[in-house]
Write a structure and sequence with these properties.
Layout (H helix, E strand, L loop, with lengths): L15 E8 L2 H11 L3 H4 L1 H5 L10 H18 L9 E7 L8 E13 L6 E11 L5 E12 L9
Antiparallel strand pairs: 1-3, 2-5, 3-4, 4-5
Length: 157
C-alpha cells in the first residue's frame, strides 16, 4: 500500500468526524421491508398509522444498512487500510426513520488497541450517532473495526 494510506498507527483516539447524506425514499423503505422486515408498519400506511410510529417507517435494520452505506463511502474516501468489522455493540434505534428523512453520521474514535494474537491488526471502537434533518438522533452504536498495522514487527504497547 502507498504512503497516503491511513494505517492503525495513524488513528488518534478522540478524533471526530461528520459525514454522509442519505435521503430516505418511500420506495426504498417498502422494497427493504418487503424483502427483509415485512411488518405492517413498514409496508402499509393505514397499519402504520395505528401504531406508535404514526406513519410508515423504515425498518431499524434498513436504517443500519443506510448508515453502513455512509460509513463505507466515508471510509473508502480516506484510503485506509481497513480490514472489516467483527461486529458492533450497544445498537439503539432512538427515533423512527421516515420516508423523506435525510440522515447523516457523526463519529468519534473512542478506543484502539493492537491485537496480541494478530500483530498485523489493530482493533478500534468508534461511537456512531446518526441524525435526521431536524438534528434528532435516530440511531447510535459502538462499531468495532479491524485495521492493518503499518509495521507488524513493532512492539505491542
Amino acid at each position: 500500500m502507498s504512503d497516503d494510506v491511513m494505517y492503525f498507527e495513524d488513528l488518534i483516539v478522540g478524533t471526530r468526524q461528520s459525514y454522509g447524506r442519505y435521503e430516505v425514499t418511500r420506495e426504498e423503505v417498502l422494497e427493504f421491508a418487503n424483502k427483509y422486515d415485512p411488518q405492517p408498519f413498514h409496508l402499509d400506511d393505514e397499519a402504520a398509522a395505528q401504531t406508535h410510529f404514526g406513519r410508515l417507517s423504515a425498518s431499524g435494520w434498513h436504517t443500519c444498512s443506510m448508515v453502513m452505506a455512509m460509513l463505507v463511502e466515508n471510509f473508502m474516501g480516506q484510503k485506509s487500510a481497513g480490514l472489516g468489522s467483527p461486529g458492533l455493540e450497544n445498537l439503539k434505534w432512538k427515533t423512527p426513520v421516515y420516508p423523506g428523512d435525510v440522515l447523516r453520521v457523526e463519529s468519534e474514535l473512542i478506543e484502539k488497541r493492537r491485537s496480541k494474537s494478530r500483530p498485523d491488526m489493530g482493533l478500534t471502537k468508534t461511537h456512531i450517532q446518526v441524525f435526521n434533518q431536524n438534528d434528532e438522533m435516530v440511531m447510535e452504536s459502538t462499531n468495532i473495526g479491524l485495521m492493518q498495522v503499518r509495521n507488524p514487527d513493532a512492539p505491542i504497547d
